[in-house]
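Example record used in the benchmark description.
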Amino acid sequence: MRDQSATVLDVANLKTVFNTRDGEVHAVNNVSFHLKPGELLGIVGESGSGKSVTMMSLLKLLPMPPAEIRSGSIEFDGRDIREVSDEDLRKIRGGDIGFIFQDPMTSLNPVFTVGFQLIEPLRLHMGMNKKQARKRAAELLELVGIPDAPARLKDFPHQFSGGMRQRVMIAIALACDPKVLIADEPTTALDVTIQAQILELVKELRQKLGMAIIWITHDLGVIAEIADRVAVMYAGQIVEHADVKELFANPQHPYTRALLETLPRMGEARAARLPSIEGQPPNLDHEPVHCEFAPRCKHVFDRCRVENPQRRDVSAAHDVACFWDTNAGGPLDAG
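Model output (structure tokens):
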């Protein structure tokens, strides 16, 4: 199912739970994916599907407890992140793997200048002195399109617009030349024009720097524009994974098809009502023992209610976790 050649990140059978007063919440359930140098993997799904928890699990950014990475492996450059020391983990965070969070206003520290927040990781991870780090910090702001960069190092986050704050977050994430950049819905809070600018910036930086990127979003339109491959998540599981063109041309999972049907189409009347996915996302208070999408699926049949489908190959670059054969228009052979 997965090409193991030249992978920079390889996640296998990852399970993350939250231990609460009301019991366990099974937020991530047997998630497996890989990432090759220089490629962009899109992770899509509704809110609560496990996208962000999966990515934060990779770097142990979740509070533990209540969170617990129960099983699985997270191999980065041949080492399992779950097994490394706290010191090595700090070097990986912000050094080898950069992270852009959703809301730059809450992610940037309001009491420190942007320059300080850029210079500190450069001194910590790259061993630069203050003069070298300041010069590099200004270069990073210029790289992400912030004018008059040396002077703006003295400014505080509130002195930047929303789009410019997100550019600062990208600069911080890129400060130590990471091999992998994880972007957690970085354009959600921005207006459409600024969103387009940030997407163009990311495409330019990816081409220039050659880093691998994981882009988390609920917006399939964004994925169509920037991704190489797509993993669709539902109820803490990857239910479909494919090259981006293949996914849009030949979606196999009913959930993926439903997501695509909610996208507006060019030429449709403005008054036309967009379809929605009926029902509610599942309660994750149990480990999946059947298809979690079954209550919302128009193709549901008996097997879906008693067995949890595992990912199966549709083609060399496409797999799906579903008992319904979309191409045949009927259930798969249970045997």
